[in-house]
Structure formats: structure tokens, C-alpha cells
């Protein structure tokens, strides 16, 4: 569905804009780049901040213990997870 693809693209763009605003170098960062130390090199506080930014922008929730998990995700996996939460929230009528 094109809206799904568009929202995934919107999420990716938002993540990259957020990383840039948080003073991370996004040169070469793509869907296959890990968010954690082996990729974009976000530390736990930065992962938590990214989670909060996404929550505020897209109206989805991440539990506190999920911030650690975000570091093991790629940019693409994170975007897909956010998109799934948006669809789930929409389906639930929130």
C-alpha cells in the first residue's frame, strides 16, 4: 500500500533529521545501518531521546526497557517497528 510506504519513508526521514539534530553524522546512514554502537553509534541516552522524539511525532509508545533494544535495530527495522505501531494504534481506534 502506498500510504504504508510513504509513512515508512516519512519515519526514515524523521529519524535521520532527528539524528542530525542530535549532532550525529548521518553520512552513509541507510536502512541497513544499526542504530547502536556498530552503526550510527547512538548511546543509550540518545536511543531514549530518539524514542521520545518518535513518540511525540507519531503518537506511538516505547517502553523504557525497549530503548536498549533499539540499539540492536537497523534504521529500516526501527522504521518498520514504528510503522507497525502506528498501524496498530490506528486499528485500535486511538
Number of helices: 4
Mean pLDDT: 88
- Round the Cα radius of gyration to an integer and report it: 13 Å
Q: Please give the alpha-carbon distance between the first and last residues.
A: 21 Å
Helix content: 55-70%
Element pattern in H and E: HHHH
Describe this structure in words.
This protein has 94 residues and is an all-alpha fold. It has helices at 2-21, 44-58, 66-70, 75-91. The model has no long low-confidence stretch (mean pLDDT 88). The chain contains 4 helices and no strands. It is globular, with a radius of gyration of 13 Å. Helix 1 crosses helix 2 and helix 1 (2-21) packs across helix 4 (75-91).
Give a short summary of the structure.
With 94 residues, the chain is mainly alpha-helical.
Draw up the topology in text.
Layout: H1 2-21, H2 44-58, H3 66-70, H4 75-91
Question: Can you give keywords for this protein?
Answer:
94 residues; mainly alpha
Amino acid at each position: 500500500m502506498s500510504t504504508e510506504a510513504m509513512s515508512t519513508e516519512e519515519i526514515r526521514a524523521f529519524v535521520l533529521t532527528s539524528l542530525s539534530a542530535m549532532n550525529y553524522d548521518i553520512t552513509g546512514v541507510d536502512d541497513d545501518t544499526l542504530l547502536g554502537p556498530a552503526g550510527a553509534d547512538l548511546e543509550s541516552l540518545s536511543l531514549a531521546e530518539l524514542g521520545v522524539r518518535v513518540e511525540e511525532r507519531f503518537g506511538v509508545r516505547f517502553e523504557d526497557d525497549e530503548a536498549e533494544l533499539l540499539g540492536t535495530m537497523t534504521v529500516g527495522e526501527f522504521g518498520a517497528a514504528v510503522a507497525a505501531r502506528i498501524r496498530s494504534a490506528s486499528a485500535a481506534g486511538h
